[in-house]
Structure to design on (388 residues):
């Protein structure tokens, strides 16, 4: 099953002429990268939605890239900037035709790429009311409302703006959906933005089996630069947040967001692995036989770059994950086995059972999670998608 990406494109009057030509060229370069990635085994469905004088799904999700090219070349600029309608059409397209894809055992949700060169307007030309409507639409994709509107998963939005766009609005959309935003000044920067969206998926496919690298902005940055693209600190953090949200790791994505915002709070800027992640001693281990050679489970994030681990043998200790510029542990894909007749334990991989009554709180039927807490009353705390 291919990954789903919806291109939600501003075709208002301000895009006429050079703006539309540059948008078409940048998206065609994006499609070339998508086709190249598909040859390696990871296909991507693309949909095209426009908002301008026409508000429509120009092309539904498909991996027939000839159809996508024809859709892009058919775009004509004109009219106002009904961004709210464009986002709602994108939502309907994902609900109707989108889904969650598994990449080497890890699930990736759809994403939306929103491109605009102006501020949103409504039928009366009012921008302030239109901005408020856009934020309502964005919230529908976010972690609080996604299931209530029929989406298969929270959907991040990658925003790219140019011209007279509103950076504050695009930043808010990215914040609400755990996505990203960048401002570009020319066709070269726009093409680079789209290329990095392709490289992000290649990165996810290459490191799908290594959660520690997937969650490391430095590794992502090196990967992108090795592919010939420059990327700044804010953009690489935004890309990381986008990817983590697509993987269902919203808590880690939020930490990436704080890092991108330059938070001065130490506990907010460390990029912790999600609760429930399974770990072993890592490169900076200095605690002798404290782990007894065992596997452990992250059960809490502590202040100042530390995490607490409960080992499978029962002991619980705190370790450095960024504190003192050290990482005592590495993330591994080794779910704990539940013994026949035994009680539930921290670190055990679980999925919904016969008495499930919690809707899609787990991200959907068939989605796995890892137990990171238990209590005497028989309740468990589960982190979903850590090893999905």
């Amino acid at each position: 099953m291919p990954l789903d990406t919806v291109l939600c494109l501003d075709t208002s009057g301000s895009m006429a002429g050079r703006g539309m030509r540059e948008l078409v060229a940048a998206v065609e370069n994006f499609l070339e990268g998508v086709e190249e990635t598909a040859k390696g085994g990871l296909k991507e469905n693309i949909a095209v939605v426009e908002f301008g004088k026409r508000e429509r799904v120009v092309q539904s999700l498909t991996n027939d890239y000839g159809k996508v090219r024809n859709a892009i070349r058919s775009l004509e600029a004109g009219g106002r900037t009904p961004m709210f309608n464009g986002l709602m059409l994108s939502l309907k397209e994902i609900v109707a035709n989108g889904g969650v894809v598994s990449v080497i055992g890890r699930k990736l949700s759809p994403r939306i790429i929103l491109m605009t060169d102006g501020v949103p307007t409504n039928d009366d030309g009012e921008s302030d009311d239109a901005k408020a409507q856009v934020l309502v639409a964005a919230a529908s994709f976010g972690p609080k409302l996604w299931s209530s509107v029929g989406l298969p998963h929270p959907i991040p939005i990658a925003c790219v703006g140019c011209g007279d766009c509103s950076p504050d609005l695009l930043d808010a959309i990215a914040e609400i959906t755990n996505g990203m935003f960048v401002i570009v000044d020319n066709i070269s920067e726009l093409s680079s933005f789209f290329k990095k969206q392709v490289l992000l998926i290649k990165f996810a496919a290459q490191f799908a089996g290594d959660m520690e690298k997937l969650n490391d902005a430095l590794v992502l940055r090196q990967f992108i630069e090795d592919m010939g693209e420059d990327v700044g600190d804010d953009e690489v953090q935004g890309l990381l947040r986008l990817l983590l949200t697509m993987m269902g790791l919203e808590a880690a994505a939020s930490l990436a967001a704080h890092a991108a915002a330059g938070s001065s709070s130490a506990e907010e800027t460390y990029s912790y692995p999600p609760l429930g992640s399974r770990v072993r001693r890592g490169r900076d281990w200095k605690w002798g036989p404290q782990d007894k050679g065992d596997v452990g489970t992250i059960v809490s994030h502590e202040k100042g770059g530390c995490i607490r681990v409960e080992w499978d043998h029962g002991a619980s200790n705190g370790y450095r994950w960024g504190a003192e510029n050290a990482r005592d542990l590495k993330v591994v894909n080794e779910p704990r086995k539940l013994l026949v007749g035994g009680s539930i334990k921290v670190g055990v991989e679980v999925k919904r059972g016969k008495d499930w009554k919690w809707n899609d709180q787990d991200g959907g039927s068939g989605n796995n999670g890892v137990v990171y807490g238990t209590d005497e009353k028989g309740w468990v705390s589960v982190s979903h998608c850590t090893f999905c």
Observations:
- Residues 18-39 form the longest helix (22 residues).
- The chain is about 35% helix and 20% strand.
